[in-house]
Amino acid sequence: xxxxxxxxxxxxxxxxxxxxxxxxxxxxxxxRGEDSGLAQRERTLNIVNRSARQPCxxxxxxxxxxxxxxxxxxxxxxxxxxxxxxxxxxxxxxAYELAIDQGADFIEPDLxxxxxxxxxxxxxxxxxxxxxxxRHPEFADRQKTKVIDGRSVKGWFTEDFTLAxxxxxxxxxxxxxxxxxxxxxxxxxxxxxxxEIIALVQRKQRETGRIIGIYPETxxxxxxxxxxxxMEAALVRVLESTGYRGSDAPVFIQSFxxxxxxxxxxxxxxxxxxxxxxxxxxxxxxxxxxPLTYQDLATPHGLAMISTYANAxxxxxxxxxxxxxxxxxxxxxxxxxxxxDAHAVGLKVHPYTFRADDEFLPPHLQxxxxxxxxxxxxxxxxxxxxxxxxxxDLGITAREAHGASRPPSARHSRMDLPNCDTVYGHRRSRRHxxxxxxxxxxx
Length: 443
Prior knowledge:
- By secondary structure, the chain is of the alpha/beta class.
- The protein folds into two domains: 2-52, no CATH class; 69-124 and 169-432, Alpha-Beta Barrel (TIM Barrel), CATH 3.20.20.
- The protein contains 17 helices and 15 strands.
- The strands form five sheets. Strands 7-2-1-15 form a four-stranded parallel sheet, covered by helices on one side. A four-stranded parallel sheet has the order 9-10-11-14. A three-stranded mixed sheet has the order 4-3-8, covered by helices on one side.
- The longest helix is centred in the N-terminal third of the chain and has 24 residues, at 2-25.
């Protein structure tokens, strides 16, 4: 079985090379001419071939380090998504501290830039939904409409505020209708900087005696670079100045874009994570005319390319299962080979995002007291190396209950899994298909 799977992976590389080549040539030739399409295909394949000959390397000087990341990742890691955001307003020091107290292995700050070049934690650079900025008359004239990653967005933006100005605002719950209990904390917490988050982590490490990792995401790096606020050097500078260096440091840097991860690889040996959305393409690809999509990157050949600059992938959890419609109109759900394909090229797999709120659970798990645990058990059985969750306490419980404290296997057969059909439904009508109902873009 193992030899068969390896052979299948190798054949898939060749097949996917052809598919990617066709993808690169299609769609644009009519607009730019046949010769232009051919040139684009050749450029893309040249990049792929060069990358495949340049595996991701780390400095030997990092090897004597404390092996902190390896120590943390001996079992699937629990990544507190924006802190313990199921219980506190996201991206606040209170949310991060609660996540640590609940046992999270890593805390995850989304990073955006201020006008004076400081990295702060917000889900988006537009902050009307996560702060009380609209209640500040002194900032009324800062409201604008901007195009962010191809979308028109109206509101107030971090890049139009200095850090001192942002510190006059107070955080608020982003999802008040889904998490009304969190609204009692509105107006209590400030917008934290990355440096403040690191100081909290290092204080909690001293208090608890355990290693706590940091998992920052660069938000809209192409946009910030275009307005003169590149993120990469600033991020590396803050991390290195606070002691995070080398491939074994307890840090993962993540991004939905590709170009800024490659820039970061040239600046640091810290572990990098390529995020994979369930649809669409990286915005830097869109901006440059590169036709490759997240679906292309999730193929064996795409994963091989990712392995040349990154250490892990963070896929939308929907990419780990495929749903096929049967003749009678019902659905059959089965695991994809994404986890095994990623492990085959040395990439860890950290899917996102697991939430206990009914609005984010599959329909048949809603209102069930253990619905979130049932969903997580299914993914843990696939051999994932970690997962993002808004509810770290439930994530810890699910991991331990599932017996996932041993290193995850890189491959699982269909028979190794819990009852997929029970969890995701073997015979369901079209109207009961699981669709993620996330009221915001991104992870």
